[in-house]
Structures are given as structure tokens and as C-alpha cells.
Amino acid sequence: MFEKKGKIFYNNDSPFLKGGRGDLRLMKKSHKNALANAGLLFLALIFLGGVYFFTSKNSTQKEDEKQKVFIVPAFQRGQIKFLQIYFYDQTNHYKSRLENVSNEWQMVYPLKDKADEESVNRILNDLMALKSEMQLTNVSADQIKNYGFGDPVGKIVIHLEDGKEISVVSGKKTAVGDYYYTMANSITNPIYLVYYYKFASLEKKPGELRNKEIFTIPLASIKVFEIKPKGQEAFTFESRVENKESVFYLTHPVSAKADYLCVKGKILEFYAMSILDFPEAKKQNPGLAFYGLNPPYYLARMISADGLTNELNIGKEESQGVYYACVNGRKEIVLIEIPDLTNKFSIRLFDLTSGKTNG
Q1: pLDDT digit string (tens) for 189-234?
Q2: Angle at Cα 96 formed by Cα 94 and Cα 97, nearest 5°?
């Protein structure tokens, strides 16, 4: 039976009613319990889903970490006898051979020269840090050439004193992503994918591995400093000791005691210079005179007390602030950058001497 109470009808026969009234409290309580249970079930599902997600993610990360391996076996630098570097810039092939002589690096091919220690150390550091991001396995011998190993971009071979070799070969770049296909120690599986920028220090031409210093005589050992500006005669300064103090004397073209700090400052300006590049094409043809080097436009020379000589000859300007030069008596033409060349070779006797000259 329904009973009307205002605008609401109550079912008096409902089992949820008490005393014949439409008491909804039991119904509301049951509804609340159902909502609470649904909420707990939802939270449980979220928790279980999170556990699965993180478990799955960690499992995937572990699988990725298996592929991220160092591809060069550990070695001691003192064990290295030779280091061979091959580089192909898509136009020319370059080969360099460096020798470890009493822990100092010397270039022995394509010419004999002192190697740039900083460049060689950077190469060794980067080699030891090479790490793959991914690996390709089960690559057949017929498929190897598809990855650029027929004519690789680069190859480095480390020859150890015990006769063992460690090699790293970089093939072509991947079609997607910034990787090089890379192999270690032999042309075989697996093929590693290594970020290409990690090879930046390894892709070097011979000129980039050579020592670029010009003046190497220790400053304290300099006995004679000679400088010849363009179109002028040479100025010669001699180091002497007076009253247990080092002094400089101008000995040519006039005789005078020089200002020690001014002459030392001028010498330091030259010691700060270095070779910019070793242009491969500019050898001895069409001759040193063509480049303004026979005789040179400018000259700077340092002579040590035991007769060791460092000399810089500068010729014509190749481009703005860059000049052709020869170093230490070699006929090989190099490039040197001196934006303020005229000021470097400027000599004012009044500034470099006490103003009193004899001659």
C-alpha cells in the first residue's frame, strides 16, 4: 500500500520500512557500502596496475642495459706501442701511425714529427668510454657490407707491447637516429650502435694529430732573441746575467741595455703562437718564394744557451689574418693565424731600451 505524505508516496509494504513509514536510512547505508567497496576495488586495480607497470619498465630497462656495454676492453696506456688511425671523409682516405716513445707520442707516418699529446690523450679517453646503445646480432657475413664496413668511415688499431691488438671500426651512419654501426676487434658479430658524436675526436687527419707548438725552448734557457719586421733589418737581443739578475741587451743594429720586462713580454707574444693547419696540397711546389718565404717577409728566432734553435718564418697572407709560414727550418708550408701581425713585429727602441744607444 502507498501512503501519500505531501508530494511523496511511501510504500508501506516495503521490507526497508520501519513502523509503516518510508524510512530510507537502511537503503542509504547499503548504497554507501556498495560505493565504498567499488572504491576499494578501483584503488586495488590502480595499485596492481602500477606494480605491473614498474615491474615491466624495470625489466625493459634491464634488457636495454644488457645492450649498453663498453665495446673496448680495458688496457693500460703504458702498454701501448703503436696507435694507427684511419679516417675517410667521403673524399679522401687518411692514415696516421703514432708511436709511444717513453710515454711521449711521436708521429712516424705519414711523416716524422712530434704528436699533439692533448689530441692523442683525448682519443684514448674517448676510446675507453665508447659504449653501445644497441646491438645487432646474427648478422651474416654477406650482410656486413650493408652496414658500411666495406669502406668504413674510421678505424683505430691499438698495438700493445705483448703483441695483442685492439681495434674499433665505424661503418656508415644509421638511416634513423644519430648512430654509427660499429665493430670491435674483428669484422664479426655483434654490430654495435654508438652515438656518432662519440667519434668526433677519433676522426682525425694527420695534420690534426701533429704538434702545433712553434717555440718550445724553455723560457729560462733563451740566450738570443731575434726579430725581423718586414722591410727592416733584424733586431737581436741577448740574455745576460748581471749581479745575479737576468737582463737583456740589444746587440744589433745598435748596442744598448734593454728593458727586461718589455723584451720578455715580446717573447711571450711569440710563445703564444701556434700552427693553425698543415695544408696537405701546399708542399714545395711552386716553391717557397711563391708564398713569400724565400726570403721570408717576417722572422722570429730563439736560440738556447746550448745552441738549440726555434725559428718562425712568415710569408704572404693566405686569407684575412692567416699567413703562410715555415717552422724550424723545414720547407713544409704551414698556416698560422696572427690577426695583429704588424704589431707583433713592431719594434720601438725607445720602448725596449732605456733610450740610450751606442752605435
Answers
A1: 689 999 888 888 888 888 889 999 999 999 999 999 999 999 899 9
A2: 155
Does position 99 have pLDDT exceeding 60, yes or no?
yes
| Residue 158, Cβ density class (10 Å: 0-12 exposed, 13-18 middle, ≥19 buried) | buried
pLDDT at 272: 93
Phi, psi of 170 (to 5 degrees): -110, 125
* Among the listed residues 237, 304, 303, 300, the one whose alpha carbon sits nearest the alpha carbon of residue 264: 237
**What digits encode the pLDDT tens for the residues 67-86?**
678 888 888 888 899 999 99
Domain membership of residue 68 (yes or no) is no
Question: Is 72 contained in some domain?
Answer: no
pLDDT of residue 285: 57
Rounded Cα distance between 135 and 126, Å, is 19
Residue identified by cell 685492439 is: 166
Domain ranges, residue 43: 2-62
For residue 241 the three cell numbers come to 746575467
Query: What's the Rg (C-alpha) of the chain?
Result: 39
The Cα 140–Cα 159 span in angstroms is 28
Q: Which backbone phi and psi does 193 adopt, to 5 degrees?
A: -105, 115
The answer to whether residues 171 and 245 belong to one domain is no
Q: What is the C-alpha to C-alpha distance for residues 21 and 12, in angstroms, rounded to an integer?
A: 6
Same-domain check for residues 39 and 57: yes
Q: Helix (H, G, I), strand (E, B), or coil: what is residue 213?
A: strand
Specify the DSSP element, H or E, that contains 58: helix 25-67
